Amino acid sequence: MRLLDYKTIGLTMKIAVSGKGGTGKTTLAALILRYLLRKNYKPILAVDADPNSNFGDALGVKVQSTVGKVLDGFLKDKESLAMGVVKESLIDYKLSEILAEEKGFDLLSMGQGEGPGCYCYPNTIIRNYIEKLASNYKHVVIDNEAGMEHISRRTNGSLDVLFLVSDPSMKGIRTCKKLEDLVAELGLNIKKTYLLINRVSNETPPQIAEEIKRLSLNLLEIIPEDGNIIDHELRGIPMLSLEESSPSVIKINEAMAKVLS
Questions:
Q1: Domain 6-65+102-110+139-259, what fold?
Q2: Is the model's pTM score more than 0.90?
Q3: Domain locations along the chain
Q4: Closest Cα to residue 74, out of 120, 128, 130, 122?
Q5: Model confidence over 216-258: pLDDT tens digits?
């Protein structure tokens, strides 16, 4: 397995996490960010690209507004803007206001536009803004929705690493394969794609292992069911506070160590 050495080449590394809903992808995205923080790969830009916007909760960040709300406001007010106001500069300013700044990382929540207007022009501005913003960080971690269109619309379609997250089920595995196929259909530039099997109680069923092999998915790691995660969720404690000894943390650390060489 060829791995990418970003410590040597010193570039911004873009990582996205996607998969079927309910597989724990947001939690794993938080643990990936946790690993990068602990290894001092800072600063990091966290992007919540899931309209459900749960990444902030997992990171312990209170989200005040979203990109979607900024776009709605822009479409609502653009006709009343004074002459000479540069719309791109205005959107850039409003986006900088909603960036949640934390110790070692910042969070940008995408949300979704609710208005009836056309988002083509402002989406182009958003894409340019995120690309400029990302260049200020060592790493970018994107908690993506189940599809890949969001990445295509809101970034330049380029990623260094895509983690596809599944539970130990046939449906979850096949969803990951569909996402991998969608990447090819959209023509996204993704250097490496890995499969993570999450919430495994015992051993992975042999039928699942056979299906992974049949679909030629690149299995990187199996993440066990972790009672500490359940406890943190019930108590409203951020995933960044999980102990190093937590089973899920151990496995994500091992996975990230492989990816980062």
A1: Rossmann fold (3.40.50)
A2: no
A3: 6-65+102-110+139-259
A4: 122
A5: 999 999 999 999 999 999 999 999 999 999 999 999 999 999 9
